[in-house]
Amino acid sequence: MADEYFFAMTLKGKNSEVWDPEAKGAEDYQGGHKLIIKQALLGPEATDGELNVVQVEAMTWKDSVKIPVATLKAGGSNNQVLLDLSFPDPPVTFSLIQGNGPVHIIGHHLIGTPMDEFEEMDELEEEMLDDEEGEEGAEEEDEEEEPKTKKVKTATNNKGKTPVKNKAAVKNK
């Protein structure tokens, strides 16, 4: 099961920001790291009328790709954009290729289960399977020892309820 954390960064001027948790000495995780970007917006200090373009460099299944993902302009309705970008493999580099920002990038950082926890879960699953197999064998032995009883079928009406006899009608008979 993955843990989810808030992610945010700010781009100003011509600087670039790199998301690479593995380079920072993060633990080895089953399922690794995943970055999901949900929004890019201009800060209040952005210059009116200035066009700001955010570019991302990330790996595809084959090679690296650089592509603009957001174009923002202060002083109008285009000062924020909703995104749904998923980056399953670090590193990811964010750059302002035009404008001075600041551009705030917001999303989620998903982290898989640490490898040592994953190994412990495997051991627990194996123990649980062994326990279940032992219990099933014991249940089968219990079923063989119990005498079989007959079930009595009771009449029910069309609503699935057992009818109640009228005590007055029974007394008059």
From TrEMBL:
Sample GO molecular function, one term = RNA binding
Q: Where in the cell is it found?
A: Nucleus
Record key words, sorted:
Nucleus
- Would the keyword Nucleus turn up in this protein's UniProt record? yes
Composition-biased stretches (Acidic residues) = 122-146
Q: Where is the Nucleoplasmin core domain?
A: 6-111
- State where it is primarily located: nucleus
Q: Which PANTHER family match?
A: GEO09167P1-RELATED, NUCLEOPLASMIN
Q: Which family does it belong to?
A: Belongs to the nucleoplasmin family.
| Entry protein name | Nucleoplasmin core domain-containing protein
Q: Which organism is it from?
A: Phaedon cochleariae (Mustard beetle)
Give the taxonomic lineage as stored in the record: Eukaryota, Metazoa, Ecdysozoa, Arthropoda, Hexapoda
